Amino acid sequence: MRRGLLGLLLILAALPALSLAPFELGAVRIAGVSLAWWYGGVVAPLLAVLLTLACLSK
Amino acid sequence: MTPALLLAVPAELLAQGRDGLWVALLFIVAPLFALLAAAGSRATVPEAGRRSLPLVVMLLVVGVIVWANLSLAGDVATWMGWPRWRGIVPAAVAAMGLVLWPGASRHWPWLVPPGLIALVLPVAAIVYFSNSNPIATWSEVASQPAFRFPADSPWVGEGRRVGHRSGSLALLFEEEHRVTPVDPGPLRVEVHDHGRVQVQEWTLAPGQSVTLRPGDRLQLDGPRRIKFEADKRVPGAPVSGIAWADSSRSMRPRVLRFLGLGVTLLGGAVALVGFAGPTGTALTRVWPTVLVLLWVLASAECWAIYAARWAPELFLGGVAAASLLELPTFVLKSQPVGPQLVGFTLAGLFALFLAASVALRKQLAAAEGQVGESVTSDGGLWGGVFAVTALAALWPVEPWSLMLSALGLGASCLAPLVLLGPRTARPRATTWALGVGFVLFLGVTAAGRLWPPASPLAEALVAYPALVAAPVAAILLRVAARPARA
Question: What span, in angstroms and rounded, lies between the C-alpha atoms of B162 and B202?
Answer without folding.
Answer: 18
